[in-house]
Amino acid sequence: MKMYVNIFLLFFVITVKASFDSIGIQTKYGDLIIHGGDASMSMTTKFIEQNNVPVNELEDILIAYINEGTNSLQKYEYSQSFALDVLVDISKSEKVHNYVDAILKSKKTDLYYSAYNAFLKIKPYSVSSFENIENYIKINDENSNSRRSIFYVDFSHEIDANETLSVDIKFNMVRLMLKYLTYDLHNWQYLDQVLCDKIPSYRHSLQRKNMIEYVDSKKENLADWERTELIRVNGEFNKAIQESPIIELTDEILMEEIKVFKTKKKFIKVYM
């Protein structure tokens, strides 16, 4: 089944929900109550200072809450995502980094989005963070499609909307999407759409031709709507190569085209 999700609305809803979440946690120091929004960090800091709580101990309290929830106060909503956000705000220690890493490698698909945001607070986009992200992309398990989708959707959103993003970071995002274009049979439609939008030469590229041939060779594994999408994409490609010759996308071409791409707030179709 093909579901179209407004990506801007998707991020907006998740962000707004987090700002209204409230959690309550039982601790030996008393009840830790944290409300969403800008006050969450100051409330947590106040609790630490008033009760002389070691940061590493608060890490354990929040991790236990996220993992089990047995220390959750019943009159407050149980929100693992919000607690994970608070955890990374108070500490970016190796323990927290390893915990976020474990979530992204786990079966906890409902926490992937929050864990990825937490990861980026610890390791903002850089050469080293892309190495980590690529390792996540290469994981092959029953949740690979969902995990990869989080990265690809965020890449597209950041390129579209983040005016502070450097050309080098955008280039690395595009290169990763292009590199893993045929890595699974779930994300190719979305990646094809994003690359057509951001890299005009992709529309008549050898990489797109190879992707179409790969997906076509696996079409017995596709749903009916995916086969329809494949026919549409192939038609677009054949039209594009009538107007321009097939080219192989080099790093130089990618860099030049990402340089001239203008940030914009737009709606992107997301395939779920």
Envelope shape = elongated
Indicate the multimeric state: single chain
Q: Radius of gyration in whole Å, from Cα?
A: 21 Å
Structural class: mainly alpha
Strand content: under 5%
Encode the helix/strand succession as letters. Answer: HEEHHHHHHHHHHHH
Q: Determine the mean pLDDT.
A: 89
Helix content range: 55-70%
Outline of this structure?
With 272 residues, the protein is mainly α. It is built from 13 helices and 2 strands. The N terminus and C terminus are likely disordered.
Outline the secondary-structure elements.
Layout lengths: L6 H14 L1 E6 L2 E6 L3 H13 L3 H13 L12 H11 L3 H11 L7 H11 L4 H11 L6 H18 L5 H13 L8 H11 L7 H12 L6 H20 L7 H10 L12
Antiparallel strand pairs: 1-2
Walkthrough of the structure:
Helix content is 62%, strand content 4%. The protein has 13 helices and 2 strands; from the N terminus they run H-E-E-H-H-H-H-H-H-H-H-H-H-H-H. Strands 1-2 form a two-stranded antiparallel ribbon. The N and C termini lie close together (8 Å).
Please tag this protein with its features.
single chain; 272 residues; mainly alpha; 2 domains; two-stranded antiparallel sheet; 4% strand
